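Table S5 (text form). Sequence records supplied for joint modeling of the two-component complex.
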Amino acid sequence: MEGFDILNLFIVLLAAWGGGALIKRIGYPAILGELLIGVIIGPPLLGFVESSSTLVILAEAGVILLMAYIGMEINFKDLGKASWAGLLAAVGGFVVPFALGYYVVTLSGGTSMAGLFVGIAVGVTSLATKSRILVDLNLLDTRIAYVLMAGALISDTLALIIFAGLSSFIDAGAVNMSEILLIIGKIILFFGFSTAFGLYILPRIGQWMAKKNIENRTTYFTLLLLIVFGLSELAELVGLHGILGAFIAGVFIKDGVFKDQITKDITHVFHDVSVGFMAPIFFVTAGFHVTLDVFQTDLGLLLAIVGVAFAGKILGTVIFYLPSRNGWREGLAVGTGMNGRGAVEIVIAGIGLQKGIISQEIFSILVFMAIITTLSVPVLLTWSTNWLKKRGELVKQFSREGYLILGANPLALLLGKHLSEHNKVVFIDANKGICENAKHKGFNCVHGNILDEATLKEASAKDFRTFLALTVNNEINLLASQLVNDTFYIPEKYIVISPITEIGGSINLLQSVSASTLFSGKVDLQPWIQKTQDLNYKEVEVTSDKKIATREWVKTQFSKNKTVLPLVIVDISGVKRPFRFNDSIEEDEKVIYIV
Amino acid sequence: MEGFDILNLFIVLLAAWGGGALIKRIGYPAILGELLIGVIIGPPLLGFVESSSTLVILAEAGVILLMAYIGMEINFKDLGKASWAGLLAAVGGFVVPFALGYYVVTLSGGTSMAGLFVGIAVGVTSLATKSRILVDLNLLDTRIAYVLMAGALISDTLALIIFAGLSSFIDAGAVNMSEILLIIGKIILFFGFSTAFGLYILPRIGQWMAKKNIENRTTYFTLLLLIVFGLSELAELVGLHGILGAFIAGVFIKDGVFKDQITKDITHVFHDVSVGFMAPIFFVTAGFHVTLDVFQTDLGLLLAIVGVAFAGKILGTVIFYLPSRNGWREGLAVGTGMNGRGAVEIVIAGIGLQKGIISQEIFSILVFMAIITTLSVPVLLTWSTNWLKKRGELVKQFSREGYLILGANPLALLLGKHLSEHNKVVFIDANKGICENAKHKGFNCVHGNILDEATLKEASAKDFRTFLALTVNNEINLLASQLVNDTFYIPEKYIVISPITEIGGSINLLQSVSASTLFSGKVDLQPWIQKTQDLNYKEVEVTSDKKIATREWVKTQFSKNKTVLPLVIVDISGVKRPFRFNDSIEEDEKVIYIV
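The corresponding structure-token record, covering 1190 residues in total, follows.
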């Protein structure tokens, strides 16, 4: 038994952190930097550090925790929504490269087991790669983004299940029918047990703990570790790989099992421990096992596998995407976006190497394939979506959409009228009369206390993209935006802050829930509500002749000594969005304000 | 290199969890259960599991993270406050058993190195052991509790420093003067560098990250891991043990370096990962290395060391405590309370065993000593504090004291008048006139928005024990108690909840900041404020003839159809506390209410 090697660990952690941070600066996922730095400082290039028991064991523990975390982040409800298009992309983007990868390996003399492993590795889609790139390309609200995320999820799940089946047969080395049936039986037993556990036993444990008022987060963390390692071991016992058990455990740890806040906290801790500590050790040491010789000895196979990865993924997606009727060009964009490989691929390749199914050369090729395909994503995705944009075929789609507005006062209704032209708008008000009035004017209004989760559930807060708080009470506005942020994850929150008292603390709270202020830095709503109530106002529409920050726009009005309340900005296609303080008005966009 | 052993890990985690949970049920710290379950399922008894690379490496990583966490929890400001008495208890409680332990070992034929190791192990005081027992014995607000905590902290720090010096000499095997000077030089260099790093470089890194608006918690976690492992390795390089570097790294990670919320979050994660995951592996496997033979072969030495541990710790504390003028009986209580040994002792004993300085027999004796002394704490501490109580010598002392009251309305002033008889009372009100009025009546009042941290800082919120929120606005009350909880860590928060609207969400928030409601479940304050304003009320004092829950008391009044507002409960010594809904009224205590 080797002892604990702090120096080795420190160097690898430092390298992982440096490599990850550098690569993230240029918009790539950390894993890419971790793999590259592993190749550089490890045996392949500089030989500065080598593997050790410490690294191996922390890395393996890290992979299990990472798979659990990936499972936790998968939301089957989201998958359901993406349905058709996402499923098509996922299946096409998996099956075609899988088949091509298999044939490339077997035709070049590899075993069929190696072929299957390479096929899975080539078929996998990286999920982590996506989100940052989508933000950078400003694609988050497009249909492509949604299909991409759903597609990657389905593809990963698919890959893991196929991998599970595959690995169990490898271990058993089964050839005759009775052995195969036994393996299938064991797999069914495992999935049956873990599903029963996840759907029936786990929620009961959660209820019992809630009833016992167990609030200690560490207790939940330890419990979930036990579940993750337990299902992981169970998977191993039936001949599946441990990562699958961990993944399934993660999938079942969802809202509803424990209190939302606890689930959120624990997910964070799993993220910190895996992504922030142990998993990078795995990816850096994966770089250690690469051999650079493949560029000379196996250049043909390298090019073939990378080529198959590109062509298979992109063409497969384009072809299978056709029945979605979203157009082959969108399919192409989805394909280029799904072309990255990431954590799951490296984990699977690592297992293949460890079990001796693939050679060090093939492992190296798969690592380089991951690096090259991931590098291609921003380039190709930028190109393909720009093409769509130019043709006007970049379809917007929100998974969450519309405005949930707190306060149904006359001013809020006026704003709501504008926004409802293109978007769903729902009001919440604690005053029954005011709510009735809103309904009378044709709006949807939920009557109830905003601080009561039940009210927000009744208003289906989880489906909204934007929350607007327009009461005259800063504290209610703040508390409400905190609640919709923490419990309903509404991504955009714009709230009115009245200049009634000093608001130092409020601004901190505002930042902590990443909300921003509506209309202006501070606005005294009361007079405007009165004006709209009395119909004593005038709506003015001005077109901006240059790009200008909303902040500047407001300042300009002040300098003209005009007291105006900017309501909405109208973009060139006529869609209105609320006027908020940290936005900017593009050239030719209009501002509608009231005086 | 051995591979990763999920089954082994799972069994140990499960055992640790079970052992810890069971022992906690009867009021003992988890570590005791973890040690015992290790002895039971490991080689000493059942031989059900053995150690493995996986366990060794996760355990060692766990010890480093645990020491960092222990360092994080040490607040030198708190130490400063405890000053004289705590220092006396710590020094006496360390030096005397240290010396006795050393002589027992050397006189019975052990090496002087082994003697020094045993001395440290016997001298150490367990910190983790304390808090739960203090709560159970309802001692949290006594001077003893404060001296105990400070004493344990100082004792641990002392032990670690002596251990550091000791271990560096052991490794070097130094005999001549120049070698000794070299070692001392290196140690000074290490402490110089780590202090400079902690005091100058780390805060600058914090400022830089704050300026860059880095809010990602995982980034901070990774950074702190690097610092912990980095200083740990540096300590090893100069010949000290790694745990010392980790401890020092933890000490420097304090409020002010990073944003309070980030420090709090990261401390939580370190706690979860060490106490909830890896450190229990260390304690269970420590049990593995115990041999039960010592009860036969070395019973004399076992009894001698345990005897020395008891006598040395308790007598040493009593004697050294005399100059504090707090009385020898209080010294005895402090001594019995400091008699537990815990994590630090087992860690040091484990290092001694690993380096071959102490034999497996002595290691076993030290483990049993930890178990026996820890078992004694609740028993002896209950006895000694009851004795003090009976003699009326149990002195109360708060590190935080007094009431910070939000809202200076007439009712709040009336309540404040009662509470100020024995306690510091400070009001906060956003209305300048109301605040002036309070000052006019002789109260201390800070004018400002409660949601502004600056206001709370001005009121020195960090020094208060209890926060009362008495505005008529539920949301402000809730938001304020959240702020004082999260940022100023005020332990007790009682707030008024008005029955204005449904309060489902509010109750959740109430629980999440562990606040409870004042006066009753819900109270409409407005009429009571009006009554006190108009001096149109009558104060009534009733003595309770039996123990009754406040909840029941309120119900009784309702059933009598009386509309009263219970203000304070007066205990038998005349001290008043606010009437809250989850308290209970002892026999002979009085309730003052208004009608």
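Note: The first helix of chain B runs from residue 6 to 25.
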